[in-house]
Amino acid sequence: MDAISPVATLDDxxxxxxxxxxxxxxxxxxxxxxxxxxxxxGAGKSTMIKALLGFVTPTRGxxxxxxxxxxxxQRRIRAHVGYMPECxxxxxxxxxxxFVAYCGELSGLPRPDAxxxxxxxxxxxxxxxxxxxxxxxxxxxxxxxxxxxxALVHDPDLILLDExxxxxxxxxxxxxxxxxxDLAVNKGVSVLVSxxxxxxxxxxxxRVIVMDRGRVVADSLINSLKxxxxxxxxxxxxxxxxxxxxxxxxxxxxxxxxxxxxxxMRVFVPGSSGPRELFALxxxxxxxxxxxxxxxxxxxxxFARAVGVE
Amino acid sequence: xxxxDQGYRRYRGTRVPSGRAWWVIARAGVGTMLRRRAFxxxxxxxxxxxxxxxxxxxxxxxxxxxxxxxxDANLFRDFLEQQGAFLFFVTVYAGSGLIANDRxxxxxxxxxxxxxTRLEYVVGKCAVLASLLLFVTWVxxxxxxxxxxxxxxxxxxxxxxxFLFPAITLFSxxxxxxxxxxxxxxSSLSKxxxxxxILYAVLMFFSRAxxxxxYAVTRDRRLSWISVPADLSRIGDAIFGLPSRGEAxxxxxxIAIGVLAVGSVYVLQRRVRGVEVVx
Lengths: 310, 279
Description:
heterodimer; A: 310 residues; alpha/beta; B: 14 helices
């Protein structure tokens, strides 16, 4: 596989759980580097990762990972992919170094190499001093780290991380994100990070795929996504008839509006329209504008625009 | 400055060809069991009947007064029948948590994200339990045969009972495979190894009790196929060429065990998955 080939592709993939569409005709390609998979709970992020691993079988569509067909070459794919599941997962009765070495052996590493890699990887993820402790005695943060270690022990070309910072304290979370970034930037490992935490994706990834209700609603470089044509304003108003009516008016006028705090709205004015139109609308509806200032578009704004939340 | 950089490095070594994950699982599983003192004690206890039988063979071959203890084919069949109790305890101790514990800790997602198939996972787990069961049935029975040859100093007994080694092997393996598949299927149904152990015990005793009740009511032993231990016992008698004890026919016993094995494989095929979808 050459450097510009996508590491994973989905072509019109649909996954159904009972009567529930988990993925609906998803077509997307993940390039090398760090890619974020962003979306609210139930958007289909974890399902997409499980489909790429072959855990769930799509009702239609075709997927490839590292150039191999997921339907036909799962074993070959898994030899070069690491997976960090969302839930707490470990093999019972083993200490950390035995667990990670065991995972290395299962992935095809000779026994001595698996043990050596286990020590190295455990130091890398920050569990070097605790590597002889039984995994079942680990804290939540340590369990997240060991899940990353078992995903890395066989030196994969691609790692799939499902909510990697779940349950971690702020310091542990920062360290986990730094590890993920280091893997993608310095170690040449492609990373697909699934998260509903926007700052995690913004820190670790340069590209984001936004999902909602089983569909891809945005797919772009993070910087491009934030630089949509138009202007963003922070707006605070006094509305005798209530804010909701004015929000509806703004939306009807083609502005995108969502709240950040109790009394502050972020209004995206598309195209070349400026604040003048905002003032005009406010005046027409007898709304007092108490505060208006230009703002910088964040990933949160781009996410809100993509999934259409207020 | 560190004398050795312990950061992440790309792996440049060789990789073992795929298809051997089952062996890694089997080796690790047996190793884990053998590190438990209580289990090693159970294994040692399971070899006591072997010691008793070996003494019997020694006495019969060296002391003329004890010639009435001379071994025959029945001795090996009886020995395997006696080992049934240890077979039960080893199955419960070593088998109940094999998949249940993996389900409890979500380890199936870890296993099945590695380059291995579900079949390899199941074969690996089967190998753990089956090898331990064979260690308390096939291995001591085979050793008894060797002991007989060693103490008698001739191959006459073996020549006169050529069917013994294949019979011991066939029956021991049939027992081990049947019990292993049944226990693994039960283990895949729950996240609690204790519950699985109790369920297995209930099924074994219940099927035997039900067979007894049916006989008491109908006075007909043809329905004894309901009891799994009775089916195995019937097949064992047939393999060793012993007369039927008036129980179900060998064909019915074979069908019952076959259905049990196929059912167990079906359950395993349904339950051993990377994700559990509840709709």
